[in-house]
MFS transporter (Microbulbifer elongatus), 415 residues
Amino acid sequence: MQAASPPSPISSPLASPRVQRNNIWRLAIAQALAGANSVVPYAVGGIVGYTLAPLPVLATLPLTLFVVGMTLCTLPAGAIAGRYGRRTAFLLGSGAGVLAGLVAVAAVMVGGVTGFWLYCLSTLLGGAYAAVVLSFRFAAADGVEPARKAQALSLVMAGGVAAGVVGPQLVNWTMNLLPAPMFVATFYAQAAVAALCAMILLGVRLPRPVHSRGRGGRPMGNILRQPRFIAAIACGAISYTLMNFLMTAAPLAMHMHGHSTESSNLGLQWHVIAMFAPSFFTGKVIARFGAEQVMVVGLLLIGISAAVGLGGMDVSHFWWTLILLGLGWNFGFLGASALVLQCHTEDEKTRVQSVNDFIVFGLMALGSFASGGILSAFGWSAVLWTAFPPLAITLVALVALQMRTRAVGSPSAKG
C-alpha cells in the first residue's frame, strides 16, 4: 500500500506586507521579553529549589514543574487559539506570566517548605506562559505565503537573542537590589516583563480562526502516521528534551563545583544567545538544504556539546557545553518546527501544532526531573553520558525515515 501523501498546503488569506512586518516585529519583541522572563527560573530555580526544598533530590522539582506547566497547557492553549484566536491565547498566557512572578515573590518571602511549594506553583504558571510563548513561532507564519513561512518562523525566534542578553542580566541586576530575601526584586521584575509583553501583543493582527465543516481536517491518527510528522516530533522532542535536561542541571552543577552564580548566569546568557542568534539565517538554511538535513546537524551538535562537557569541570567547559547545546537546539528544534508546517492544512494547524508541542514538552518533563535525580546521585558526568543513547536512536530513526520517504517517492516504488 502506498503511503499517504502530505497534505496540500491551504494557506490562510495573505496579510499585507505592512501587517506581516508589524506582526513579525511585535512577535519578535514579545519573544525577546518572554524569553528573558523564562530565563529567570532556569538561572535561579535550581538555587532557590536547593535552598527551600525539604530534600536535596527535590531541588530541581520547580524546574520540572515549569516543563509540566508547558506540557499541560499546550493543548488548552491550542484549543483557545483555534476557537477564539491566537491573540486571546497570548494574553491569557501573559497573565499566567505575571502571576508566576508574583507567586515567586510570595514564595521567597514565606520561605521554608511552604515557600518551596509556592515556588513550585510559580514555575508551573511560568511553564504555562512559556507554552503560549512557543506558539509565537507558528503565529509568525499565519498570513504569510508558503515559501516564506520558515523564514518568518525563524525571524521571530531570533528575538530570543535579546532574551539571552536581558534574561541573565535581569537576574544579576536585581538579585540583591532589595533587602533579603535574595531574588525578591528579580521576581517582581519577572512579573513586570510579562505585563509589558502583553501590551506589545495587543497590536498583533492575525487571521481569524478557520472553522471548517470537516471539523478541523483529517483525523489526528492519520496525521500522526505521516513519516514527516513522526520525524518532526522525534527530532523536536529529543532536541528540546536534551537541551532542557542539560541546561537544568548545568547551573546547579556549576554551583556544586564551586563556580559563582555570576559565572553560571553568564554561561546561561551565552547559551540562550546561541539558541536564538542562528535564527537570523536558519530559515534560509532550511529553505536551501531542507528541514531534515538541518535537524540532523542539530542533533550532532548536541552530541558534541555533551562530549565537550565530559572534558573537564572548569568554567570554560560548562560554557562551551551550553553554547554548543544552544546551537544544536536551534537547528534541531527550528528544523522540526518547519517540518511541522508541511504536515497540516490551514484548518488543522492549531490542533496539529499543539499536539506536537504537547508530545515535545511531555518528554521534556521526564528529562527535566531525571536530570536533578541523576545529578544529585551520580554527578554531572553521568548527566552528560545519559544524553548519548537517545541522540543515537533518534539519528538512526531520522535517517531511516528519510530513506523510507525517498523510497516511497521514487518511481520504482510507485511502479
DSSP finds 18 helices and no strands in the chain.
